[in-house]
Amino acid sequence: MALPIVITGSLLTNDLDLWVLSSPYSPMVLIIVSIILVLLYPAPKDRWTSTRGDTTMILSGSVGASIGLWLECRRSGRLPEQGFNFPYPINLPTFDAVAMAFVRWIFTIIIVVPLRAVMKSIIFTILPMLLPKSDLEPNKRAIIELPYRYINYAIIGVFVTYVSPLLMRQIGIYGGSPYGQIQ
């Protein structure tokens, strides 16, 4: 049963990627479709389950990353080539390349962790004020927990794929190629 889905998906991947990166409507479509998927997630109505929140995190992080890449294509004025021309030569990473990748990773972590904490604080302060009162803790209410996870991780996705590389370029630690790590 999964084979037709895998075959169809693999045939459409390059075209879908190109559409996501080039269409002016793709961020709006990604957000709308992902919100519909979060709302349609089959979860029990009488209790909170963390699986729904985890699914929302993964989905919104992917949407945020896609929007960040879309913004990067808009900023740079160029799209990636139609797929990669594989095979790339396989080179062992040098010590300098590993060290620079580690520096970029640490740089992103240093900014993402406080960003996540600040966004959590803001969202858990504002959403309970806007929504009806309840006896449940805010982090156990789906009406608060799902928007928190969606907004927070979408922003982190945009940050990791768009803002962080911009900052890395400014301080001179970004990789030399348009794809950063592919050299």
Give the low-confidence spans: 178-183
* First and last CA, distance: 38 Å
**Structural class assignment:** mainly alpha
The percent of residues in helical segments reads over 70%
**Largest sheet: number of strands, sense, barrel closure:** none
Q: Please count the beta strands (DSSP E, at least 2 residues each).
A: 0
Q: How big is the Rg?
A: 19 Å
Q: How would you characterize this protein structure?
A:
Helices cover 70% and strands 0% of the residues. It has helices at residues 2-22, 26-40, 50-76, 95-130, 142-171. The two termini are 38 Å apart. The protein has 5 helices and no strands. By secondary structure, the protein is an all-alpha fold.
In brief:
The protein is mainly alpha-helical. The protein has helices at residues 2-22, 26-40, 50-76, 95-130, 142-171.
List the helices and strands and how they pair.
Layout: H1 2-22, H2 26-40, H3 50-76, H4 95-130, H5 142-171
Name some characteristics of this structure.
5 helices; 0% strand; disordered C terminus
